[in-house]
Write a structure and sequence with these properties.
By secondary structure, the chain is of the alpha+beta class. It is built from 5 helices and 5 strands. The chain folds into 2 domains: 40 residues, no CATH class; 86 residues. The relative contact order is 0.12.
């Protein structure tokens, strides 16, 4: 059997195809065998009040697609515009590779992989924001 295996802590919540599922009192494992299921650990989710930087904004839009709170067609254009703007700032080879990956994935309708590629830019963005003059 292949697929994704989620290891959940007690009371941990996960969003699967728009449904919030909460684990019981013990650690457990879930095997997700449905390909391309939309899955988001709520502990990893970006909350609306945390959307305060350009990368977080684009990540949040991709997250809304995963949660079913935004139409994929409408969000795709916003994500692509956001990636284009980010490409003006993130000019190093590795960041460009992540932005290219995010672009490829959202164009393929794979919001989770797009989000994953964009999230890898968060530490870089944090360093850039910390280094900017006040």
């Amino acid at each position: 059997m292949s697929g994704l295996v989620l290891k959940l802590s007690p009371r941990e919540r996960v969003l699967i195809n728009g449904a919030v599922i909460e684990n019981g009192d013990r650690r457990s494992r879930l095997s997700i065998v449905t390909p391309n299921a939309n899955i988001l650990r709520l502990r990893d989710a970006i909350h609306p009040e945390e959307v305060n930087t350009p990368v977080r904004r684009v990540c949040y839009i991709a997250q809304l697609v995963l949660s079913g709170d935004a139409a994929e067609d409408e969000a795709r254009m916003q994500i692509l515009r956001g990636i284009e703007q980010l490409s003006q700032v993130f000019t190093d080879t590795d960041s460009r590779a992540q932005l290219d990956q995010a672009t490829e994935q959202i164009l393929s309708g794979n919001a989770y992989q797009c989000l994953k590629a964009l999230r890898s830019l968060l530490p870089r963005e944090d360093r850039l924001m910390a280094a900017r003059p006040q």
